Task: inverse folding
């Protein structure tokens, strides 16, 4: 098994990441040119340039923008988008899509609220159960996709409605703790307000996001598992013939996405100290936008974790900037929607140059 | 040799699709009858003319949008922006009715259809020629058009007293004084019949099935794939625009944050329940109309039985999932049976 793994790794090093090494030649001039070219054509470059521009624009709009503490504290407002996008990177690179991530977040949040308040389970255990539940909901998606050979789009569109619908049945239009309850019945102190705590000056949610980004980045780019994900995205049939356990990998990444949604759900509940069925409604759009904007090819097989992380910060800066400029949340939708389409157009154009 | 084989598999897959379609239509009717019987036993007044009317009022809006969504899914695409197109067209025409109370309602309806056509054409152009995958395009326009709806209306809703009485009458009065079947039903039936003949008898309609069945083969046969794709999304937009007016007629208001939100899910549910293949290539008008009727009946049954509105979303999700899963299993079994064990 071990030797098979390493041979797989060896045969697949021709994947996108190392392409610049192969194209380099011996002449120093053309080498520098090639390096510049490959650097400019890296998928991360578009979100990076846009991020710098958005940052400049934002700081022109408001002096708060240059206040690092304001910015750092504000990352918590959208951190769930970032955390969910880490799982989405794997799914989109493998050629699939998961529209149910935000609904999974809401269902996990609501069930956790009920487990803690209505069933009286201690918060620590509730937290663990919630994370397991998130993974389980993702596993259900993966199971439906792999067992029934259904398109992930159809399956996760159904669970998008189903998961949020279940959350709605469980807590109704109310919340946990219920609006009518006395003010004393709340989530425990240690659990609430994770965004108020900092680690080496970084708010804990952002810290969790960065840590996960590094770990999952290593998983994607440095392990056989990560190679398998790319191989599946490039050509599923070929992957199957070359011995990649396609179904297993697909179930694993859907489970990962569900787990991350569950984690994001618990962070959101801690941040807002309330669980509602409409938490993160419509955020699947932001998550997919972040991933695609980060240079992950929506057709699968290409993309990087770094790009998605940069793109998350771009969306964060844009949303914060528009918030500071008093653009209403509903009108921000327009910008995010247009941005999603533009990002695919730009990446199409860049793909053409790459070839 | 290989071509003969591929022709044979294509033929067998076609009879497979036909078998499936027939099976599905019977299945929906059976399911529909079961729900009606179950609901009537639980609550005898379910079959009152009031409730039948509620079903008949609920279904047209959905049918009009679902006809477009069905064509999109037959081409192996998806359009999740229909709810936002419905809202944007509805709010623009509603604002015109508000600011010019004498505005002709037929002209207003035509305008809504044209606005929808334009918005759908943007979707279609991005998908057909810029080659952005349908999910991404329409997910982008789902929020872009919704954002525009807020920007255009400045977040204000069109109030009932601004919707023309004559427009509301479409949902209250029927032809020849038969008020049980209001005009909106007639409109939906006309749309369904037109879609039926478009898909069955027109060249462009046949092409819709062809590109969903096998896009490469369709290109090789000289079918204008890009143009047909564009057309399908444009038509879907136009139908969603029409639905915007029907919404104003049915509910008497248009709200930028409420109208059409999540409607794409209902439409996709109806299409998938109606037996349209999520892999494209097959789907029938009759099946989808039955799917719409089924959803409408479930919806009214839920409220008559006193089940809270909070159940609606989960029921839709469950029904979509059920339909997709049942289809996948039936198809697998049929394929197994037709290839011979």
Result:
């Amino acid at each position: 098994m071990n030797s098979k793994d390493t041979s797989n790794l060896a045969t697949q090093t021709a994947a996108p990441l190392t392409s610049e090494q192969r194209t380099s030649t011996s002449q120093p001039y053309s080498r520098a040119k090639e390096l510049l070219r490959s650097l400019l054509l890296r998928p991360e470059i578009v979100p990076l340039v846009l991020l710098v521009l958005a940052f400049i624009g934002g700081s022109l709009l408001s002096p708060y923008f240059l206040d690092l503490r304001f910015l750092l504290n504000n990352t918590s407002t959208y951190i769930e988008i970032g955390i969910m996008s880490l799982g989405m990177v794997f799914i989109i690179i493998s050629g699939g899509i998961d529209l149910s991530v935000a609904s999974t977040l809401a269902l996990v949040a609501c069930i956790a609220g009920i487990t803690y308040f209505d069933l009286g389970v201690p918060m620590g255990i509730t937290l663990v159960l919630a994370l397991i539940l998130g993974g389980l909901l993702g596993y259900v998606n993966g199971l439906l996709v792999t067992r029934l050979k259904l398109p992930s789009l159809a399956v996760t569109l159904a669970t998008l409605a189903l998961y949020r619908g279940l959350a709605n049945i469980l807590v109704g239009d109310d919340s946990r703790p219920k609006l009518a309850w006395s003010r004393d019945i709340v989530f425990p102190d240690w659990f609430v307000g994770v965004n108020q705590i900092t680690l080496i000056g970084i708010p804990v949610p952002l810290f969790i996001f960065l840590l996960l980004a590094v770990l999952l980045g290593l998983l994607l780019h440095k392990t056989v598992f990560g190679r398998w994900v790319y191989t599946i995205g490039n050509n599923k049939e070929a992957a199957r013939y070359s011995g990649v356990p396609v179904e297993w990998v697909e179930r694993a990444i859907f489970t990962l996405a569900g787990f991350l949604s569950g984690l994001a759900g618990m962070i959101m509940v801690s941040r807002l100290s309330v669980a509602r069925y409409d938490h993160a409604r419509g955020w699947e759009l932001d998550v997919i936008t972040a991933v695609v904007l980060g240079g992950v090819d929506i057709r699968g097989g290409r993309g990087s974790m770094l790009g998605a992380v940069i793109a998350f910060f771009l969306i964060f800066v844009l949303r914060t900037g528009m918030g500071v400029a008093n653009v209403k949340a509903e009108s921000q939708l327009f910008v995010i929607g247009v941005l999603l389409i533009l990002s695919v157009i730009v990446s199409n154009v860049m793909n053409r140059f790459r070839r | 040799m290989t071509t003969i084989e591929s022709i044979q598999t294509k033929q067998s897959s076609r009879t497979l699709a036909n078998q499936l379609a027939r099976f599905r239509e019977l299945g929906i009717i059976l399911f529909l009858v079961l729900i009606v019987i179950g609901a009537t036993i639980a609550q005898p007044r379910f079959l009152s003319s009031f409730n039948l009317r509620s079903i008949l009022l609920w279904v047209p809006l959905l049918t009009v949008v679902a006809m477009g969504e069905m064509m999109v899914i037959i081409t192996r695409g998806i359009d999740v922006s229909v709810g936002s197109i419905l809202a944007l067209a509805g709010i623009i025409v509603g604002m015109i009715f508000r600011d010019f109370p004498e505005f002709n309602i037929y002209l207003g309806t035509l305008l809504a259809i044209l606005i929808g056509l334009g918005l759908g054409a943007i979707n279609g152009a991005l998908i057909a020629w810029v080659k952005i995958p349908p999910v991404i395009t329409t997910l982008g326009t789902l929020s872009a058009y919704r954002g525009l709806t807020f920007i255009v209306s400045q977040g204000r809703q069109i109030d009932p007293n601004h919707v023309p009485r004559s427009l509301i009458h479409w949902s209250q009065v029927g032809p020849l004084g038969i008020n049980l079947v209001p005009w909106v039903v007639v409109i939906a039936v006309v749309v369904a019949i037109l879609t039926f003949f478009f898909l069955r008898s027109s060249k462009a309609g046949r092409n819709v099935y062809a590109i969903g069945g096998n896009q490469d083969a369709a290109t090789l046969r000289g079918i204008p794939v890009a143009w047909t794709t564009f057309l399908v999304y444009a038509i879907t937009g136009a139908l969603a625009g029409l639905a915007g007016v029907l919404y104003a007629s049915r509910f008497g208001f248009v709200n930028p944050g409420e109208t059409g939100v999540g409607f794409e899910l209902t439409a996709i549910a109806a299409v998938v329940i109606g037996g349209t293949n999520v892999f494209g290539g097959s789907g029938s008008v009759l099946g989808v109309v039955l799917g719409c009727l089924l959803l409408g009946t479930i919806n009214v049954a839920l409220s008559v039985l006193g089940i809270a509105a909070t159940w609606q979303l989960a029921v839709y999700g469950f029904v979509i999932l059920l339909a997709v899963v049942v289809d996948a299993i039936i198809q697998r079994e049929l394929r197994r049976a037709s290839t011979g064990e």
Summary: Chain B touches chain A through 47 residues (CB under 8 Å). The domain at 20-339 of chain B is CATH 1.10.3470 (ABC transporter involved in vitamin B12 uptake, BtuC). The mean pLDDT of chain B is 88. The two ends of chain B are 22 Å apart (CA to CA).
